[in-house]
Design brief:
HIT family, subunit A, 2 helices, globular, 113 residues, 5 strands, alpha+beta
Length: 113
């Protein structure tokens, strides 16, 4: 069964896409927690951080490079931004397809929020 994100990747569900290449897609979060809140998702379905294999290391690094590129393009790189990946229920993961939350455009408190 494909995830919500796979359905977005396959264009079965609409999304406000801000970046895409052969390995990943990024789109605006529908419930933003900051002025800029983008989800960066690999096209490969990997359920949780616990499922990342050695062969996925370059892909996960690529997600962070996309985050940095988008931060520069949106003008928030210098002020700073937050990148978070949740894992499983207690970690706040709601879609079991790894993804980075990239948030910026305001001062981020600790913990997230």
């Amino acid at each position: 069964m494909s995830t919500l994100f796979t359905r977005i990747i396959n264009r079965e569900i609409p999304a406000d896409i801000v970046y895409e290449d052969d390995q990943a897609i990024a789109f605006n979060d529908i419930d933003p927690q900051a002025p800029m809140h983008v989800l960066i998702v690999p096209k490969k379905e990997i359920p949780t951080i616990n499922d990342i294999s050695e062969e996925d290391e370059a892909l996960v690094g690529h997600l962070y490079r996309i985050a940095a590129q988008l931060a520069h393009e949106k003008g928030i790189a210098e002020d700073g931004y937050r990148v978070v990946m949740n894992c499983n229920e207690y970690g706040g993961q709601s879609v079991y397809h790894i993804h980075l939350h990239m948030m910026g455009g305001r001062r981020m408190g600790w913990p997230a929020g």
